Amino acid sequence: MKIILAGHNVDYEVIQECRSALKGALSGYGEESLTPETISAAYARISRNPLPVNELRKIAKTEVEKARKSNRNIVFGMGHSSIAEHAVFNVDIIGVSRLIVEEIEKFRLCSYTEKSQRYIRLEDDFVVPREVQSGGLEDLFVETVREQNRLYHELYAGLKEYMFEKHRDMVSDPSNRSTVDGWAKEDARYIVSMATHAQLGMTLNARNLELMLRRSAAHVLKEVNEYGTKLYEATVNIAPSLVRYTEATPFDRDARKDLKKVTVSLIEKMGASGESAIVAKDGNVILVHATPDGDEKIIASIIHSSSDLPMVECLVAAHRMSMEEREEIIRTASRHMKSYDPPLREFENADFSFEVTVSASCFAQLKRHRMATMTCQNYDPSLGVTIPVSIRAIGMEERFMEVISRTEEVYNRIREVSAHAAPYILTNSHRKRVALKVNAREMYHISRLREDIHAQWDIRETAERMVKLGKRVMPLTLMLTAGKDAFVPIS
Questions:
Q1: pTM higher than the cut 0.85
Q2: What gap in Å lies between CA 144 and CA 130, rounded to an integer?
Q3: Greater model confidence, 256 or 405
Q4: Same domain, yes or no, for 112 and 243?
Q5: Torsion of CA 357, 361, 367, 372, to 10 degrees
Q6: Residues 240 and 305 in one domain
């Protein structure tokens, strides 16, 4: 057996310095070998070449143009796009709006680490959308965002004093002060607009890079188009053989637009039915659907992987078991589990479909659960706003709502010019509806992370309601869900 490190991501400036310092003296390899394309090309040859993979890599490094030609043929000619996944990029993203971070992070096979408004005190930096500028509303937009930001600083000062007094015992230990200070920041940010600057680090492979470029080119917002152009410019020369189709396609550009027209027309024609498909509801969370007999299906799946029985017989066995016998199966499957262990993959065989109405602050965290299937409506002021209890406690609710009212007046003005750009002016407290499908295994992950005592209160409340409703229909499957702090292993 050979375990060989093929390569790893290196800061691009270091690569550039190496190019300058080595001047081609790379042990027989040219400067052009400093590309991830050679790894993709070598791995593509594994299936048809008997040489060890480390030898294939060595060959690819000496024949870069040949490697690129091979990549183009295999990825685009033969359609084996997974080869492009071996080339990985790390990208700094700075100075985009909080609104388009939601668009960037829709690509769930990429990895993101984002500047958190919970931990960092915000400055007054924000994006002025080109749609707003061309519509003659820049001054009104800027004035409104600055008013929001002034209130943010007022709220932060008041909330910091409130939080430090409320948690006096906790802050007596200096190591806890940053935590309590963070609670003030995270509640103050509910008045900040989605035009506020964000930054993040992103890791993605060439296959997802190409998809992101294509979708960005097709997007209705100019900021997303600009992001795509700059991302292309930053990466185009690194692995040209793996990224080809970057222009907007009719499917990416028009499918959603056409669906909206057809849907609106059909809804108007049908009218309201008055029927309800709700399974259960708790506050902002609606359980729309769950796998029928989900507990039995999970148990049957565990029996299947632990025996030689066909699945049909496993389903019959699970159905015939007593409640105690089913519980024994689930407990045995979870007996050695720690708070950091995911449940067995068999737990993916039952699903929950929710509709949640959440603030932008809550959605910023919810969207990180990439194993979920998530689709969203637009932010909608008619859904109201989420106001932190602490803002009421310091007597700032009326001031908060005054700014919200002015914000929504400006939102309506911008909508007349550009409906797509209007959400930039909305705040982190504004809400939208999200359709969310998760399997039982992912429900454990959401519970562990978001029901934990350290989780932010907004998403913690949403997660608690999701789990509570899920337990109504699958009590055995979800019986060990809990935040990390409350997880108790089975002895």
A1: yes
A2: 16
A3: 405
A4: yes
A5: -40
A6: no
